[in-house]
Amino acid sequence: MSSKKYLFTDPETGKSVDLPVLSGTVGPEVVDIRALYAEKGVFTYDPGFGSTASCESKITYIDGDQGVLMYRGYPVEQLAEKSSFMEVCYLLLHGELPKKEQLEGFIKTITTHTMINETILRLFNGFHYDAHPMAMVAGVVGSMSAFYHDTTDIMNPRHRDIFAHRIIAKLPTIAAAAYKHTVGQPFTYPRNDLDYCSNMMHMFFAVPAEKYNINPVAAQALDLLFILHADHEQNCSTSTVRLAGSSQTNPYSAIAAGISALWGPAHGGANEAVLQMLEQIRTADKIPQFVARAKDKKDNFRLMGFGHRVYKNYDPRAKIIRSMTHKVLEQLGKNDPLLDVAMRLEEIALKDSYFVEKKLYPNVDFYSGIIYRALGIPTSMLTVMFAIGRTVGWCAHWREMIADPETRIGRPRQLYTGPAFRDYVAVEKR
Ligand code: CMC
């Protein structure tokens, strides 16, 4: 805690209260307002939590003005270049990069948890053939709380570990089952001789009728995308997991809540919306009319994949994905005209005073869909892919929250503007 204090003075009584100022390792200081209501009887008002630190965390740091993202202090660029998704999972969960044996042990644990209970698999038969994969995945993950009763003592650190291993290992299997349901193919069981991303490609695309050759370029691209999706501090879905988890609910339910929050187009659902938008634009000559619509306050349309609550600079994840998109397409021998449209759109928007003044830059979702598309993953599955990558971040935050002695049930207050008081009127007199 810094010695600095904020003086809050009640304008009516003139009486003041000293609010302590807390300092993190890096980033802005935080005014601790916990005593404000008890001492002064006032709340703070911050819809969307733009000025509110909801918790203390040691996991991820973002400097939105500089375009910096670090997991446990390591810049995401270094992790993207040198690390692997499994190593990043270990780092996020445990706070340190693993030693060789620790990494091997972790990979083995995740690999041996990839299968799901056959009854879970049968749940998919209950979904309509055109159900959105995110609806199926959120529902099925929620249902996992009905299966793993043996390890849901959230106060037991070992149970928390086992939960994290299970959900990280099983989400690709559930995602693949959702995909197979949408295309009407038989479910493909996981192969534990494959690495995390190769196994995912196998479960998505292998069919019993023929041999499926896993393309290592595709598996590597997935691994990199998952590193970039792995965590992003107190974003909407992570805050949802924390808020739901603060009631001490079953962790699978908290993650299902996070998946549901991720689905919205303002959050992770933006990757699907970006591809739909690029498909609508189709040719570069139509870009100006979409940019004009995005600027028109009477039109609800926004440039999807643009803008961010925290980044007022280029999203570092978008920068990495943008440069890898070219490489991946080239290595896969694919040419996607939507990439040209996306690049031209970015160029036009970044020169437009509306986007410049509002500091609206491409975010993580702007280019990721083009890579997923090149890997054969359909547009409706894009947010599910984001969820697979983000699951470890949700787990790390949930674990941190449960272990934090300062955690209390999340319970915001409000500025009430409804009727003050009225007497009940009998129905015949209304
Ligand atoms: N296109 C056009 N105008 C925009 C856009 C956009 N994509 N994003 C923000 N603005 C404008 C907005 O109209 C507002 O203008 P004004 O000040 O004149 O009212 C101003 O910029 C600030 O926007 P905001 O909605 O108050 O900002 P926010 O921090 O509440 O919202 C956002 C952030 C990401 C929801 C928003 O930028 C957006 O809707 N972007 C498109 C959806 C998207 O790409 N979402 C993915 C976010 S990154 C990944 C993730 O979170 O999962």
What can you see in these coordinates?
This protein has 430 residues and is mostly helical. Helix content is 50%, strand content 6%. The chain is built from 18 helices and 6 strands. Strands 1-2-3 form a 3-stranded antiparallel sheet. A 3-stranded antiparallel sheet has the order 4-5-6. The longest helix is centred in the middle third of the chain and has 27 residues, at 157-183. The protein is globular.
Summarize the SSE layout with pairings.
Elements (H helix, E strand, L loop, with lengths): L4 E5 L6 E7 L7 E2 L4 H5 L19 E4 L4 E4 L2 E2 H7 L2 H10 L5 H12 L6 H6 L9 H11 L13 H27 L12 H10 L10 H14 L6 H10 L5 H12 L7 H12 L5 H9 L20 H16 L5 H15 L1 H5 L7 H10 L7 H22 L27
Antiparallel strand pairs: 1-2, 2-3, 4-5, 5-6
Helix pairs in contact: 3-18, 6-7, 6-11, 7-8, 7-18, 8-9, 9-14, 9-18, 10-11, 10-18, 11-18, 12-17, 14-17
Bound molecules: carboxymethyl coenzyme *A.
